[in-house]
User: Fold this.
Amino acid sequence: MTTAVESPARPTVYDRLRARVATSPRLQIAVPAVVTAVAGILRFWNLGHPHELVFDETYYVKDAWTQWNLGYPATWPDDADSRFASGETDIFLEDGSYVVHPPLGKLLIGAGMALFGADSSVGWRFATALFGTVAVLLLYLVALTLTRSIGVATAASGLMAIDGLAIVLSRVALLDTFVMFFTLLAFWFVLLDRRWLREREWARRGVPATDATDGGPAPVRRWGPVFWARPWVVAAGLAAGAATAVKWSGLYVLAGIGIYLVITDALERRRRAIEFWPADAVARQGPVTFLLLVPPAFLVYLVSWTGWLVTDGGYDRHAVDAGSATGLWSWVPLPLQSLWAYHQSMYGFHVNLSASHSYASPAWQWPLLARPTSMFYHSDPLGEAGCTAAAGCVQNIYSMPNPLVWYAAVAACVYLAIRFVRRRDPASGFVLTGIAVTWVPWLLYPERTVFQFYTVVMLPFLLLALALALRDLAHPEGATHARRVTGQRVVAVFLIVAVVLAAFWYPILTATSVPYDFWRLHNWSPTWI
Assistant:
């Protein structure tokens, strides 16, 4: 008696849909276009509300406007917030203001204000909304380059398009969305560099891939070629430099990318049967990679300070003058010496920042989603602003990611770590690197005042991890038809619930007036809301 074995090759509805998209040029364009359009609608709808400076907009918006006009952030009168919101945008003073973040993010915010007017709250937030929208498309491209799977790319970018944390940080004039965008851009360039080397440079040098492992084929040569023609590494350096020119946390991105490039260069040399592959990657290719990566990053960072350098009014602009410029570095131009002194002061501020804040959340809590940040809260009594609820209405801006997606993504990271250990999967290694450089460094400063919304920078990598896990669940290798159908149904249910939750949370993210009792329904944890 024989038992029939179900063929694993039998296509499911999901398989047929995936094949149709993969073979249709129109759908290949339409899918990311629709996802990006959804992201844009959710970010730009009613962007100017509330017409007041919320949370840390009180720093960045006013600094951005003075930097745009004077070349450096300047001070404002004590009652400037309400006056600024009412249209008095020219009441700033000319004394330099002490700011602790580099200028690029504020320059981008200032560009939006120059475009729409400083008295427009849409102008304050236009740049973050634009970069937050384009970041969704960028995540699609990263996922597609990494996996060559439209399904993975759509899942990752689609979840980011509707994610509450990404939406909120795109609708307020803070700096973190810019850091996220430039970080993701740098990692995309790293992927393009890997493809550039494998498909062009190694082939041009005539070194075949042998998949050499311990006990495998004998090495074909002792030393491999040194590649100078790596334009995508230069581009990654520029992007990481831009991230650093927004916030210093971009330095961790730059360092992580450098380490990642050296390791992947070493593994590629091992794959090409280079005998001394570790030394070849570190001692020969490593210095070249450093020169291609770091100087462009430094150049972008330094250029971002141009306004401060070419004017005289910036804070600490003359910290070092001709009378005090002595010693080994006396040959350095005085503005650069003053800039270095200013950076020493900024470093001391960041390291020693430990002020208490009711919404502070140390980095070890971030995976637990213990304390999201309320950035704006306004209570409307019955009858005010059209409120018809007896208990009154509430307007809230709350940096809450989709809870289901967040916890699933954290679990997916654990899954990817196990998968990487077992299979040495390159895609898993790439995603885990992105998570490491955007989270682990914050663990080194447990006493520093930090916030859950900083995780918007690591969010794209968390969603990449989740999309990879969902792919394995929906399309496991060698599984039977029944197993694949079950997995695909689970994924479909998960995505449907994620969309429902996104709609449920959206009013709480966007200062939409809702009944107080509806607002209370979102208080799932004592540390939320």
